[in-house]
């Protein structure tokens, strides 16, 4: 984990990679729980028998599950001290490039693209690349915007 003591240290890291998380295994229970939470029970995610005959040879994680896991993965990869709170402010561009098979492992690689001052803190844009172990291309790339309030 990359730990920044304060907003000044964090801001000085613009243009660099600021952290890489540990690997996380995506199991069927997590996929099924996400399906239940969102109501997205498409067979490619929740029916291993049918998915085995499908285009990916088995069930895959929902793209939005992969994206939502960027939050705990990024929090594992980097932290900023001296702030009252961090708020996910939104996303710019998001792409789901490589499907994540059930049983696959993902991790986040985080780069700090820009920082600007806002009332009470800063707004940062990060590129979060969700890598899939053993894949040539990432599972997901997202431009994430976070606000740190001091």
Relevant terms:
150 residues, alpha+beta, Thiol Ester Dehydrase, Chain A, two-stranded parallel ribbon, 26% helix, 41% strand, MaoC-like_dom, MaoC family dehydratase, HotDog_dom_sf, NodN-like
Terminal Cα span: 21 Å
Low-confidence runs: none
Instruction: Quickly give the structural class.
Output: alpha+beta
Query: How many domains is the backbone divided into?
Result: 1
Shape: elongated
The H/E string reads: EHEEHHHHHEEEEE
Strand content: 35-45%
CATH topology: Thiol Ester Dehydrase, Chain A
Annotation, overall tally of beta strands: 8
Helix content: 25-40%
Output mean pLDDT.
98
> Measured on Cα atoms, how large is the radius of gyration?
17 Å
CATH architectural group:
Roll
Find the CATH superfamily. Answer: Hotdog Thioesterase
For the biggest sheet, the summary is:
6 strands, antiparallel
* CATH first level: Alpha Beta
Q: Please give the count of helices.
A: 6
Pfam families: MaoC_dehydratas (PF01575)
Family: Belongs to the enoyl-CoA hydratase/isomerase family.
Protein name: MaoC family dehydratase
Domain MaoC-like: 10-127
In short:
By secondary structure, this protein is an alpha+beta fold. It is built from 6 helices and 8 strands, in the order E-H-E-E-H-H-H-H-H-E-E-E-E-E. A hairpin with a 2-residue loop joins strand 6 (105-118) and strand 7 (121-132).
């Amino acid at each position: 984990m990359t730990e920044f003591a304060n907003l000044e240290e964090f801001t000085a890291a613009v243009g660099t990679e600021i952290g890489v998380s540990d690997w996380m295994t995506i199991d069927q229970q997590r996929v099924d729980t996400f399906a239940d939470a969102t109501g997205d029970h498409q067979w490619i995610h929740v029916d291993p028998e049918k998915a085995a005959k499908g285009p990916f040879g088995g069930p895959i994680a929902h793209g939005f599950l992969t994206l939502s896991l960027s939050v705990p993965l990024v929090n594992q990869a980097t932290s900023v001290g001296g702030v009252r709170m961090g708020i996910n402010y939104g996303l710019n561009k998001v792409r789901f490039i490589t499907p994540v098979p059930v049983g696959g492992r993902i991790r986040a690689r985080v780069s700090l693209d820009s920082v600007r001052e806002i009332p009470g803190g800063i707004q940062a844009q990060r590129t979060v690349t969700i890598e899939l172990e053993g894949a040539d291309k990432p599972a997901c790339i997202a431009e994430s915007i976070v606000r740190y309030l001091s």
